Amino acid sequence: MLETNRLLIKPTNLDDAGFVLELMNTDGWIRFIGDRNVHTIEDAKNYISEKMIPQLEEFGFGNNTLIRKSDHLKIGSCGMYLRPGMEGADIGFALLPEFYGQGYAYEASKALLDYSIETLKLPLIQAITTKGNVDSQTLITKLGMKFIEVRDITGISEPMLVYRYGESQ
Hints:
Layout: E1 2-3, E2 7-11, H1 17-24, H2 27-32, H3 41-59, E3 63-68, E4 74-81, E5 89-95, H4 104-118, E6 124-129, H5 134-142, E7 146-151, E8 160-166
Parallel strand pairs: 5-6
Antiparallel strand pairs: 1-2, 2-3, 3-4, 4-5, 6-8, 7-8
């Protein structure tokens, strides 16, 4: 578990299924990340069991749930992901809409990026986003990542903006 001034960043587990269901069905998630067909608690548990936990167990990183320290509310997610057709790890983040614009996504992403570089020693970290997600582009740039290219990513229907941090920057 990582900790920042305002957040606890803990690996997502089956106890987070209700929260994962809520987050994955927000307008922002569906618009910018995509519908993962998680529409019931059982779907969320299966997604966590089949997608999130195996990556964490095999590689030591994956999806994390963001918990606000002041009231222990689950407010979002942030993680490092391995994606087909991409080199290195991909940092990603999402918040429930009521927590947008308060610096939580940057705070969590910065802590995770630092941990991934300093502790996990990941040589290459990337981020992807859609052309229309200007807020995400701004945050990614604020993290010190550099725009590399627009390209098709396996399993994603539209071309994505690719940013890099690390040896291939």
